Amino acid sequence: MDRVRTSLVMVVTLSTLFASGCGDGILSGAGPADELTTDVGETLRDEVESGLNALTLGSSLDPVGTAPAPAAASLVSAPCVTPSTPADNDGDGIPDDATYLFTAPPCEFTGWRGGTLDIVGSLRIQDPTPTNAGFGYDATLTGLRSRFTSGDGKLIYDVTRNGTRTMGGSVSGLLLTADLQLIRTFAGHPDAAIDKQWSLNFTPSTSLQINAPLPSGTLDIAGTVDWTRGDEHLALTISTPRETPLQYDASCTTTVQRIRAGVLTAAGTFGDMSGIVRVSWRECGTEPEFSFESTD
Description:
The chain is mainly beta. The chain has helices at 14-17, 33-53, 57-61, and strands at 8-10, 97-102, 108-112, 115-126, 137-149, 156-170, 173-186, 189-204, 217-229, 232-239, 246-248, 259-270, 273-281, 289-294. A hairpin with a 2-residue loop joins strand 3 (108-112) and strand 4.
């Protein structure tokens, strides 16, 4: 994946951010402050996109905006991986109890920010109501690793996820909850161990239909992220401000970046300073901006 250098708005000086002076992590001055903002921001951006993909089983298997991709008329057209047991007694597109073992190839995708994405690992999907059609599922992720490679091959990073996702909902909306442990690699920086517990509410602009593509709508996210990298430890509270929920645009079909507006915030203590990292989306197809604001 191309690492896009977005506009970083820093409302504190580097000397203030590094005031704690302890340890040898990025917060203590081993790198510029905007590097931590970017790393946290890019991680949150990727988790939003991962959560968006998880709202349907089809896009869990073939992420949106990639090739090969599902045909417009179906969420499950030619996935790169097949279920261990395809039984789906209620016909809602969610198997009764199946495991998907991803390998690359064939689970290699082009069109991901000008580069490629490949997926390996295990995803178990269970239908909580196998005799009653609905939108819900229970998922168990085991060593599910996504690897992003830039078009020139100079940037490679991995996100490995373990844990659970649970989704429920109706024609009027979906609720996805995640309890995941991540290992996220960075070019030139140590790996980060991340414990993510959050919920994502999707409110569609039109009524949802079983086995139909996701329409446009809004995403509201709330929860926590615990970040450990070297001597860095960030306990972050994640939220989407009520006035600026994330706006998913289903008509934006030529890019993985389908959020056209909205803000996600991560509030916590960075070194000795309280502050907020903001991830701000401006338009479909354009990378979000990352900024830091002190709240001291």
